[in-house]
Amino acid sequence: MAFFQYFTKNDMELIHEATVHVMEKTGVIFSYDPALKVLAKAGCKIEGQRVYFPPKLVEEQVAKAPSKFTLYARNPEKNVVIGGDNIAFVPFAGPPFVTDLDRGRRKSLLDDYINFVKLAQESKNIDINGGILVEPNDIPNDKRNMTRVYASIRYSDKPFMGGCLGRESARETIEMASMIFGSEKEMAQKPPFISILCSLSPLAYDDRMLGAIIEYAKAGMPQLISSLTMAGATGPVTLEGTQVVQNAEILAGITLSQLIREGTPVVFSGSSSNTAMRHGSLAVGSPEMAVSSIATAQMARFYGIPCRSGGAITDSKIVDAQAGFEAMMGQLTATLSGVNFVLHSAGIMETYMAASYEKFIIDDEICGMCKRIKRGQRVTPERLAIDLINEVGPGGEFLTQMHTFQNFRQEFYQPAMEERGIFENWQKQGSRPIEQVANEKWKTILKNFKDPCLSLSENNALKLYMNKK
User: Is 131 inside any structural domain?
Assistant: First the structure.
């Protein structure tokens, strides 16, 4: 399908020129000695922790990143291609709270993490699982990464997201994955997971993220090199200026990854948006976030790298009309602008602070709709149906035609929970709002969960590893 675009080729060239100028003249802070040594050896000027990047070095290294790669699932039927005209939906990452209609808002626990892994596993629309779905606040900090990785592998046979909070969490993820997916050398050829590594806006990376970037790059593991720049706070108030800051941060991380290991799969990952100036806080359910997604997709294609943006995101505190229209705006924008990897596709709310069980189900429906739109149309003589139109003629009807019976299931998106019946039937069924339907649905999914079991030996190996740490 054709992609929605804001910028001309000349616009993108101007953004790129401004980006490499900032990288060369202003620089980017890297607070991790091993990264500084790599960059100095490559020809960057280093002053303290500030790195000044030669434009030629940046362009040469970014060009080494692949334009497309595959994540290999425990179930080969669920392998996911990242890049090209493909789109992958991923639930959410990072919220310390969860909410549902029965218990309200509360701190998230390990049971919630496992529940969301199961919901994502059962979804026909979610492609990649795991990561920091929610914080398991009942697990000690030093055990959380292992616990999340184990749950992601144990309860799902889809590709998953790995740890991102430092070199140690990256090493744990690699070692645990190798117990299921083969040696590190084999995983470098068929990576089963991807991780998100984030800059510290404006124009900085801390030691945890840099340690993880290096560790994953050494192993050839795919990475989302990500920036969240807040227009008006950690970036210029103009969205073009914020794109320059985002661009510089992402290209700096990609340059490091390619210097560590040429050809490391990376995703150009932008989630920048504007500042809610009345409150001084991040706004994600805004049209500016949608504009940023479009710009991110265009700049990623400019560099020939897969791209990532946000999706069904909202600033709403409850599952209401605001949550619905903001989620669809973000998800549809990502779909139409050619984003390849949509993180926060289902369940996130409250500006990344909470995960909602009901919103997960509603957003999953949005994912299905967007995948239908993404599928596009093929204009062929058969699909134009000229003979059928001539046969039915003026004043006829198509409802009872065999052509309709043979094709409607493939042609039309079949909603899992959307209300399309007549008012009287809806009333007879209890006049339930969609969030109540979603409440019942997530409970049913968890009750009937089909366990994609690990072998006993694999399960024991992972548990033994965790017990020894």
Answer: yes
Q: Does residue 126 form part of some domain?
A: yes
Contact 133, 355 (CB under 8 A): yes
Query: CA-to-CA distance for 294 and 87, rounded, in angstroms?
Result: 14
- The reply to whether 249 and 358 lie within a common domain is yes
Q: For residues 336-361, b (16+ Cβ closer than 10 Å) or e, as one string?
A: bbbbbbbbbbbbbbbbbebbbbbbbb
Residues in the chain: 469
pLDDT, mean of residues 131-139: 94
Q: Write out the residue range of the structural domain in which residue 387 sits.
A: 381-411
Helix ranges restricted to H, 195-238: 207-218
User: Confidence class of residue 410 from pLDDT cuts 50, 70 and 90?
Assistant: confident
Residue 469 lies in a domain: no
Inter-helix orientation angle 9-25/239-260, to 10°: 70
Residue 308 and residue 232 share a domain: yes
pTM of the model: 0.94
Whether the Cβ atoms of residue 256 and residue 276 lie closer than 8 Å to each other: no
3-state DSSP assignment of residue 29: strand
